UniProtKB/TrEMBL annotation, chains A, B:
Pathway(s) of this molecule: Lipid metabolism; sphingolipid metabolism; Sphingolipid metabolism
Ranges annotated as spanning the membrane: 334-355, 361-386
Domain of life where this protein originates: Eukaryota
InterPro entries named among the record's database cross-references: Endo/exonu/phosph_ase_sf, Endo/exonuclease/phosphatase, Sph/SMPD2-like
Keywords noted in UniProt: Hydrolase, Lipid metabolism, Magnesium, Membrane, Metal-binding, Sphingolipid metabolism, Transmembrane, Transmembrane helix
Endonuclease/exonuclease/phosphatase domain ranges (all copies): 15-278
Name of this chain's protein: sphingomyelin phosphodiesterase
GO BP, sorted A to Z: sphingolipid metabolic process
EC number: 3.1.4.12
Annotated gene: Smpd2
Broad EC category: hydrolase
A Pfam family matched in the record: Exo_endo_phos
UniProt record similarity statement: Belongs to the neutral sphingomyelinase family.
Predominant place of localization: membrane
Length: 412, 412
């Protein structure tokens, strides 16, 4: 039997940490990333945290000759920070914004303002000689950051995101031949969110599957050796943590194998700084047509999958109850502020009508108190609306997971 | 050649106008809708504007025997108002919330708070004898309302929604055999948004395709004869308008034909009120397996499609420029308020340090002015952030449309 031709696909993934005014030596690093990408010719580059459109434009101009196709995904107040550069045409794009993404009042964490999303770029392999057109879905993405592992208040939000991401991939990938996902998932390899994502979509982890690996120990991408990382956050993990992934999956009559996986290890060659506070992940994939189509690999471990979905559903339930408590207390606060305002209005009217004692309070404090009550009313109403949405989305995800569990359990 | 068996699918679609405390005779109407649905056995029921979860629960209990499967889509502050009842199992659901949906400060229009979305329910036809499993995607949905046709400020938002909806359908429907979409699109049949949606997805309009039609003239679903409609809004349209649709499409080796389309005409039989301020749309579809698979019907009229996309892109561009102006003016307002606050702070500090004249203003007015400036600062910053998002999403949609135009024009 004649062997089918193989396509060798080199993928580059990096969380660039390019926040204007905040990230250290940003412009220098973006220039360095551009130079490296131009020199080492990858086929597909998935970048995250390119928050400034100017940085994207600069990269686009610099990389136009080797990566003629690119796309920047716009969303949220600041943007999604996601972009793709490709040697092959990008035929279509779609952006899915997660329904939950942290709290607007946690200004120091800022996730809410980013409009974290998954971008979908759909390209065609028709021109690169795999034999037939093999649409490729590539998804750069970033999930909600983890700020404190011991008391991770954002776990339910991250699980909702992981679930929505998995559902998005399941529903959009049906006509693709190969799905490629690269990004900063902000989850350790054994976390429930990663297990959920991999189990529910059938995606494979390039690090676990790679024939050859070269780079930081255990494939870590946030390492204490990197001069930009917060050393204190990594104290419990002396080797670092692995939170950036390249995941892939062949859908129809194709097979994908990870030939090689590399991570950068600190400073780029010839300079004193690394690309970012994260290490880059680079994978070489071999895509080959199979003589016979094989079914979806999902279904081999459905019992394990049901356990993972149940575990995730429990965590989402914990988040739901916390959200319901906050929903209730912000509502109560709004009602109290409203009552105070009404009381003041009545007292003022009473004084005006000459019914009560003259000027029970000094005018200034009375006025200040009214403004304070008004401020509390506005803020707590806003919070109440926000938590209403949060409760709805967590509840909706719990429902969807329940439906998934039922389908998993009913299968013969 | 033996004829393949035909599946007869009866679909019911209605905008229920069931807003708690606001909609007239809501509970009576919801009860009426439930009774009718129980009596006339449809296969699939797509409802919109069921804003109260209690109404959904009541319907679910009442309809459990004839529609054992149902789903309520949760989103936004108030909810999406969307739900599905089905005779056949619902295997999976996904909710896509449009990225733009009106303005939070237009309280009287309220669209922003609804989290308008398209729900996706994916079911299996395996048990109903079409021969093979034929996944069916059914999408209940609602787009942004049109409040003034002459000066329609929401047109760009509705176009972004129509585009996102079309993209969502294109990307999720690949593995389905039949796509069914029912809902209140808030667009007249000849509007650019409808042409865009139909052209870009290949969906067919059940009203235009139906062999037999029975109901309001021209298939109108918002008619002056209905006792709940605002007569003044329909003055330019003495027959009414058609804004509720059932659209469908066969994807792979199936054909769908619309055998019959009906709309309700005013009061339900035996009572004095209609179901809602909208008329219900009921379609009978015949789904049949084709001996040979046919290609996607898209591509027959690509020149026309390119014109429609270009027209929509122009309108989105108009919206983008308006959003940029609002973005700029809210930013300027915030800066002015900040300057005023700073000036006041300097004056107060100066007085305290004994540098300036004593008490240039009475304390109370000084204090009131400061609170006013603070209020303006908070509001205009909020607006500025909102318009930043709006600009990003309009810009992103313009980009996507440009990419679509390029692909359309490059095709041989």
């Amino acid at each position: 039997m004649e062997r089918e031709p193989t396509l060798r696909l080199r993928v580059f993934d990096l969380n660039c940490w390019a926040i204007r005014y905040l990230s250290k030596r940003r412009q220098e690093r973006v220039r360095l990333i551009g130079d490296t990408l131009r020199r080492d010719s990858f086929d597909l580059v998935l970048l995250q945290e390119v928050w400034s459109e100017q940085d994207y434009s600069d990269l686009m101009v610099k990389l136009a000759s080797c990566y003629p196709f690119s796309h920047y995904f716009r969303s949220g107040v600041i943007g999604s920070g996601l972009c793709v550069f490709s040697r092959f045409p990008i035929l279509d794009t779609l952006l899915y914004q997660y329904s939950l993404n942290g709290y607007p009042y946690m200004l120091q964490h800022g996730d809410w303002f980013c409009g974290k999303s998954v971008g979908l770029g759909s390209g065609s392999r028709a021109r690169v000689g795999v034999g037939v057109p093999a649409p490729l879905l590539s998804l750069p993405l970033q999930l909600h950051a983890e700020y404190c592992r011991e008391k991770d208040a954002y776990l339910p939000h991250r699980l909702v995101q992981a679930w929505e991401l998995a559902q998005f991939i399941r529903h959009t990938s049906k006509a693709a031949d190969v799905v490629l996902l690269g990004g900063d998932l902000n989850m350790h390899p054994e976390d429930v969110g990663i297990r959920l994502l991999r189990g529910w979509t059938g995606l494979r982890d390039a690090f676990a599957e790679a024939k050859h690996f070269e780079g930081c120990k255990n494939g870590c991408t946030l390492v204490p050796d990197n001069c930009f990382t917060e050393k204190s956050e990594l104290l419990p993990f002396p080797l670092g943590i692995r939170i950036d992934y390249i995941l892939y999956k062949a859908i129809s009559s194709f097979t994908v194998k990870c030939e090689e996986l590399k991570t950068t290890t600190g400073p780029a060659p010839g300079v004193d700084i690394p690309f970012s506070d994260h290490e880059a992940v680079m994978a070489t994939l071999h895509i080959q047509r199979q003589p016979q189509a094989v079914g979806d690999t999902l279904g081999t471990a459905e019992l394990v999958l049901a356990d993972v979905v149940a575990e995730a559903r429990t965590e989402v339930g914990v988040g739901l109850r916390a959200a319901q408590r906050q929903h209730y207390s912000s509502g109560r606060m709004a009602v109290l502020a409203l009552l105070l305002l009404l009381l003041q209005a009545m007292a003022a009217l009473g004084t005006l009508a000459g019914l009560g004692p003259d000027q029970p309070f000094p005018k200034l404090s009375f006025c200040l108190l009214a403004f304070l009550a008004l401020g509390v009313l506005i803020l707590s109403t806003g919070l109440h609306l926000f938590h209403t949405m949060e409760v709805k989305m967590l509840h909706g995800t719990e429902d969807q997971m329940w439906m998934a569990l039922r389908v998993l359990q009913e299968r013969p």
